[in-house]
Every structure is written in C-alpha cells, then in structure tokens.
C-alpha cells in the first residue's frame, strides 16, 4: 500500500546530532545524553523510575561537591523495556539497550546486589556500563550496606567516565607503612578501629606477615574529619576524591597498580576523557531533566547499493546470501523489515513487512535485488522518503560507492539509527559518519565468498532489547578456497541448542556435505535445503541440538579450487538459561599511529566471567593483510585483571587502511570455568564506628562457589566487532612501540632472599621479546614513581623471556636492614631500539623477623641461637650473580 511504502521509505532517515558522535557528552559543566536502560526481566514498577530520578538528583549534588563545583548531571534518558505496558511511554528514538551507560537488571550470581561497573582496564579509559539491581534501587535494607544511592552512583560514575579504580582492596586489606599496620584506604587520614569481626576484640598480628590476621576488619568512623575519598568508602561522610596532595601512594589497591600511583583527581584532570575541559560558571540549578521512553518492536530497512560497481565479481551474490541469512535466521519474529535499493535514485523493493512466519521471510528474501547497474548516490538511498514515522527505526546501509555524503542536516532529528557497511576497498569511509551521529555500527567487508565478511556482519545485527535468550548466536564462521575436503567442528554447549542452523555457501557448484552429531545422527547433502540461485545449502536442526562436538565435512567435487564457507548459528536452550555470550571491540575506532590499539573480548554468562578459554582475534585490512592475535586473561600486558573473563592484547602492526575484527572463542579441552573475580564495584560496608562503638553490618551475602566453579563445557563462539581505521601521517613509517608496562610485579621475602616475579612484556608492547630489564628499589615509593633512575639499581644476568611468560628473580642484598624496614621495588623493560616501558607497578616488601620464643626458667639458655636479618648497605648498585638467582653470604646477629 501507499502508506506502507511511505513508511518503509521513512525508515531510511537518520538522525543528525549537531555533527557530534553518539554517547555521553559534556555540555558546559553538565553531562547530557546519559542513557539508563531497564532489562526486560525486571518487573514493571513505576516506583523504580521515581527512584532512578531521585538517585540522579542526589548524585548531581554529590558530583558537584566532589569536583569542586565543576560538574553535574544535566540530561538523562530512561529506556523502559517493551514488555512494560502500564505506562504511556513515548517511543524511543536512537536509545537502545546495547548502548546504555547504566543498566538496571536482576542480580547475577557473581555480584548479587552490589553496584559495579564493567571496566576493561586502561587507566583513564571509559568503562562499558554501570550495573544496578532493582533491589538496590527499591529496597533501603539492601542499599544501606553500600551507602546513599546518590553517592554510590558517583563512585560508579568515576569508574565509568574517568577510568579510575577502587581504593580499597578486599584481597589485601592491610599493609605495612614502615612499622605501622595500615588499612588499605585513601586518604591515610581516614580514622577507625581494627577489630576482630567475630568478637570485637582488638586485632592481633600474624607473626609471619607482620599484618593483622584474616579475621581482622577495619571499621571506619562514620563521621570523618577528612573529606576524601569516595573511591574508598562511599558510605562515609567524605565528599571528595583523593587529590595529588592527599592520595595514599603506598596503599596496595588497584588504583595505584593501574594508574601509576596517581590519585583519582589527578587521573580525572590529566588522563580521562574530560582532561583539559574548560570550566564554565555553574548554572543556578543542577537538577537533571529526564526523558522516559520505550523501545518498541524492531523496524529494520535494508538499504542496498545496486550501482554498476556492485556488478563486479561476486558482490551481488554475496549481498544476497548475507541478507537472506539475516531475513531467514537472524531477525526476530514480530519485527518489521523492508527493502530499498538505490543507484542514483531509490526504489522500494519491499515495503515494511511483519515477520510472522516462514511465508513472510520467504517473501522478503525473494525480493532481494539480483542485478546491478547505474550511478551511485548514497544520500538518494538514505533520503528515499519524506521521513514521516522513521523515529526509532533502524537502517542497514550497504554500499561500495564513493559518492559524497552531504545529507546529514537535511534529515535532522529523524530519530533513526543507521548501521553502515562498506564493501570493497574503494567505498567512501565517510559513510561511517552516519553511524557515528546516530549510534549505529560501522563495518567494512572484503570481497569474496571465502572471507564470509558480509555473512558475519549481517549475523551481528541481532535484536538488542537486553533479552539474550531471543538473540541468534553465531558459533562458527569459516571459509576457504580449496580443492578436496574441508573439515571442521563446532561445539553445542548446554546453554544453547534451539533453532540451530548450518549454512554452506559455495562459489560455483554445490559440495557434498556430511554433518555428524555427537551421538546419534548423520546428516548428508540430501538433508540440506538447496537454493541454487543463491548458491547456498541450509540444514535446520529440529528441536534442541545435541550437546557436544558436531563434526562437518565439505567435499569440493571440482578439479579446481572454489570458495566455500560454513556458518553455524543457534539460540538459547530455554528462556530460563542465559547463554554464554562473547563481545569484542577495539580500544579506538580510529588511530593515527601515536599509540598502540587494544583488542578486547568479553566472555561471560549473564555477567559471570568465563575464564581459561582459548580466544583468538583476526584483524584484516582492506589491502589484504591479516593478523592473528591470541587474547589473554592473565592480568599482564594489555590485560588489567587476571581471570575476569575479559581477554586482551595490543595491536601494534599499524599501517594505513580499514580493518575488520573477528574473534573466535573455543573451549575444546574443557578447561573453561566460571570465575569468582570481582573488581570495580561499590564497597560492601562491614560496619562503622559511631560514638566510639562498632556497629556491625551483616556479613556480605556469600557467592555459591559450587555454581561458579562448575565446568562450562565445550563451547564455540564467533563474533565480530566494529571495523576501525588507521591513518598514518604521509611519509611516516609504521610506529615502533616500547615494551608494555609491567603491571603485575610482585615481591616476597623467602628466608634471607627477595623473590621478584612478573609477566614478561614484549619487544613491542606485549608482542615479541624484550631486550633487558631495569630493576630498582628504594625505601621511598614516591622516588620510584617520580625519579626512577635515581633509585638503587639491581644488576643481574637474566635474559627476558617471550611476552606472556612468567619471570622470576631471586637475590639477597649485601647490606643490613632492620627488622620491619620496608622496601619498594619497580621495573622497566627495554627493547632493541632502547625504548623503555613505563615504570611498573610499585610493590613493597617488609622483612619480618619472628620473635624468639621465651625460654622457661628450667631451660638452659641457648647461646648459639641467632636471628636472621635481611641485609642492606649504602652502595647504590647491587650485583646479582647467576642467571636467575644470587645468594650472598648471610650475616647474623644476636
């Protein structure tokens, strides 16, 4: 109908937001475009919306105080789920769940009701999202153990926006400062009592460590005379962040380890996204304004380039194969899909059609364009209608053309989200602007069926309302140009198995196919549905697919090589079991070569990290260069936290071009487990000291280790991230990077020796092998940070190992040290070009000499008893002999 046709064309409009990119903005002193999304599992409750608003109002006041009257919250959007039906909520525009900065969701097994922020690790880099639970928002008996909601939110906002970290440490709650035991905190001026948590006795000291025993807890005074810090304990009367002057550089917390012993305020003003922002006068009102919107059923329009250049090679065939997969397998029931093609003008091939069964999917797939010819005007495709009713809809725009992009302003505020795909090496990368300003995704695809790029891209456009059980999950995606047999396997784990599909794409003639299930079934070519015109074969597994390893074989019966690919998709096994999910992204979407890029992959089951998996990233440039990088979760190099389910690596081979990112995750050896590792969350407050008396809170709800230590089982996942680009200055060679900063340096004393351990960095960040180490120590930690080269040097004969390998150095310093003296160690790595890494984390070690037992009156004195002493002298350089270890003569005294 004319109305439907007009509606379909209207979907083509995109939003123009003053030329800026999508996401949180700082407008003057006020933060705008903040998006908080409620998960569909959360029961509808209008009080929750009220509580969100009250939290932000309170948080705005706290933020203003914490930033010396500079910053506040100005504009907030609240996205309610589509299954909420009691309120009259306006339709969302470009607000989608996957882009939310704050998520309200039911508690997961790892964190419970603890507010936390998903951080990938780089100091000063923005986090992914803040996670809050309905009980935290609605139940005062839950939130009171974390502090006022507004101040808790400011604590999490600092994680999210500025990339700072917690100043407490539940794993190392105490440390020695000289001979004084201190609680890990900031500032050092936070006062309180050290009490046994079971009987409120004064704490006792462990004679081996010199620290308080494990059952000791530091209970801070609820009312403090110091004003910092919110990143230590947001429940106290403190109202500021630690400054450069008040920061506790000795505390063994994550803030010091990852941020080079810098204070929170120093990171905000020098490293964060808001560093150097001009301060303007604060307006009279700092109360935020709110917009409440609702995501509705998905509306997607495929806007497809059919100009003459698309006739080259197999582009039109590849387009049809990938778009057919999207229509048949990826887009969810009850969504609307339309198809528009364009050359110099736009034509509606299929108006918006409700997906309500196989017939509607077949009709849409049959309407995909088959031929190409004519000029290219991308804006003609985007502006294919008058824009009426496009708000909240999505466009998937595919083009290989080079036409100019000048249509942003003419479609201002349409409210549509544009996902852009550029095909081949000559497409205009300026198309990416349309995604940037509307919150869409950008991907670049290479030509050729063996790349499977277009299939991967269309597969990635799943629904994004927060309900993971409704999403199609890509398990396998691989292609080859080959003769003879093409063999592989894919694992179906116990979290998936419904709507499992095997898709084979071939170049010229259909191969023979054999698929073996783990136990009972064999499928051959006769079981596949053949679409000869699209050159695809599809096998749909009825019911729930068997759990275990599925094997497949393709036989190219031709005498010459042809391209073939296999794609396997599935969905959650039930609504009650969230699937294991993988997401990947780069630290930057654009690089000029001034610093290395980081590759990240997150593997989890509804917020619970999956560890010990094999994760491999493939980065491919539009010039054909391909890089295989193993991503690690080892807490070293690019990876900030060991065993947190976030796998990382540096990408240093930067040359000018457009790049795609693809990650494959396997657990074929069955080693993967769920993890107990938590970080970047509000402190559960054990209690306070009020009027001199300790008021204890109930113990923090325990984690069920049985659930988390369970075997994940064999699984396979394949995902892609958004494409990115590198543009080096003309005539400038590819950059040469130093070794990465060592972030896991550790020191212990074993008898009379110091034992240092760390993970080896590389020649270029965490790639290759470094040339040498420079290890220094001091009794002053600030000296190592501010003037590393003047600290005492330890020389040795230790050849660095390959990046990622464990390093160990053991030695005794030929000097005298008193019992209780604390030393601080730090290290740098150097490459063959004499480039040095940043100074490592600063680690402290203290020699504790256990007291000799008091003899009974009847015992004769043992005149030979001597106590070992850790030794130090005034020489600046200390020789360490041997490749891995030196032991000097030990000196003793009575």
TrEMBL record:
<keyword id="KW-0732">Signal</keyword>
<dbReference type="GO" id="GO:0005886">
    <property type="term" value="C:plasma membrane"/>
</dbReference>
<dbReference type="InterPro" id="IPR013783">
    <property type="entry name" value="Ig-like_fold"/>
</dbReference>
<feature type="signal peptide">
    <location>
        <begin position="1"/>
        <end position="23"/>
    </location>
</feature>
<keyword id="KW-0862">Zinc</keyword>
<dbReference type="InterPro" id="IPR036465">
    <property type="entry name" value="vWFA_dom_sf"/>
</dbReference>
<dbReference type="Pfam" id="PF08434">
    <property type="entry name" value="CLCA"/>
</dbReference>
<keyword id="KW-0378">Hydrolase</keyword>
<dbReference type="InterPro" id="IPR013642">
    <property type="entry name" value="CLCA_N"/>
</dbReference>
<protein>
    <submittedName>
        <fullName>Chloride channel accessory 1</fullName>
    </submittedName>
</protein>
<dbReference type="GO" id="GO:0005229">
    <property type="term" value="F:intracellularly calcium-gated chloride channel activity"/>
</dbReference>
<dbReference type="InterPro" id="IPR002035">
    <property type="entry name" value="VWF_A"/>
</dbReference>
<feature type="domain" description="VWFA">
    <location>
        <begin position="299"/>
        <end position="475"/>
    </location>
</feature>
<dbReference type="GO" id="GO:0046872">
    <property type="term" value="F:metal ion binding"/>
</dbReference>
<keyword id="KW-0813">Transport</keyword>
<comment type="similarity">
    <text>Belongs to the CLCR family.</text>
</comment>
<dbReference type="InterPro" id="IPR004727">
    <property type="entry name" value="CLCA_chordata"/>
</dbReference>
<keyword id="KW-0325">Glycoprotein</keyword>
<keyword id="KW-0479">Metal-binding</keyword>
<keyword id="KW-0868">Chloride</keyword>
<dbReference type="InterPro" id="IPR051266">
    <property type="entry name" value="CLCR"/>
</dbReference>
<dbReference type="GO" id="GO:0006508">
    <property type="term" value="P:proteolysis"/>
</dbReference>
<keyword id="KW-0482">Metalloprotease</keyword>
<dbReference type="GO" id="GO:0008237">
    <property type="term" value="F:metallopeptidase activity"/>
</dbReference>
<keyword id="KW-0645">Protease</keyword>
<dbReference type="Pfam" id="PF13519">
    <property type="entry name" value="VWA_2"/>
</dbReference>
